[in-house]
Amino acid sequence: MSLSTALANHLRAVFFGGNWTSSNLKDQLSNVTLDVASVKVQECNTILALTYHISYYISGVLEVFKNKPLLIKDQYSYNYPNITTETEWQTMLDTVWTDVEILATSIEQLKEEQLWQDFTDAKYGSYYSNITGIIEHTHYHLGQISLLKKLIKNPS
């Protein structure tokens, strides 16, 4: 198995399952309604905000794989749209799942030497560091989402 394929599989695993933690974003969000996703717990971000935040980076990195410029900025990563219906929430989730699969497929196409090249600019690191960063970032917020679900279900 190539390193590119391994990275793509690792990305898929945090979103769709099969990773070492036995937790993945799709399963964690499968039973989350918009009402639950919008609950504010103390000073924490909502599940909706975290989901958008994760997807913001996926879609931004995906643009680079489509030979477009890297336009995402950290300051906008929580500026999620006003989602008011369950249909809009489900559409947002469907977009995330689609974008992740497209990104994973794009990663699989990389030759190993490309993994070590600059990701648009040296200041952003390599393709490898951005791909592993996306995976680490998703695991981090996946843990937050899991805890938020428990706190929302059993507030005490």
What topology does this entry show?
Elements: H1 3-16, H2 25-29, H3 34-37, H4 47-65, H5 86-108, H6 112-115, E1 118-119, E2 121-126, H7 127-153
Antiparallel strand pairs: 1-2
Helix pairs in contact: 1-5, 1-7, 4-5, 4-7
Choose one word for the global shape. globular
The N- to C-terminal Cα distance equals 48 Å
Give, in order, the helices and strands.
HHHHHHEEH
Beta-strand residue fraction: 5-15%
Structure report:
This protein is mainly α. The protein has seven helices and two strands; from the N terminus they run ααααααββα. It has helices at about 5-15, 25-30, 35, 45-65, 85-110, 110-115, 125-155; strands spanning about 120, 120-125. A hairpin with a 1-residue loop joins strand 1 and strand 2. Helix 1 packs antiparallel against helix 5, helix 1 (about 5-15) packs parallel to helix 7 and helix 4 (about 45-65) packs antiparallel against helix 7 (about 125-155).
